[in-house]
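Table 4 source record.
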Amino acid sequence: MNDEPLEEWLERAEEDYRQAQVALRQRKYPAYNTVCFHSQQCAEKYVKAFLVRHRIRFRRIHDLVRLKILCMEADPTFDLISNPLALLFPYAVDARYPGFRATEQDARAAVAAMKQVRVFVRARLGLKSN
């Protein structure tokens, strides 16, 4: 998992970024679970892109808190995005299975958290946040 090119991680993160926003705009058939899942996936892939850039090895996990701790080895300011990462963390699994039903408020909060993580990590990768 650590050998994939940085560009591939960024492309996949941007796919999730776009999908979360498209799903959030759906009015006739709202898919709030999908919004939450893609928001989490976008954040996870950006964090992993940072780890790849800094050649920090990581396992196949979805735990954004543990991944953040690894990022802090290269950049202690990752602690600044603890809250958005903690908000998104449960959606890696919960949003995909019965028993969880995201609300519009959950989805909007997930997108806001995703955007915070995206801007933060892109800045540390030297990328614009367009």
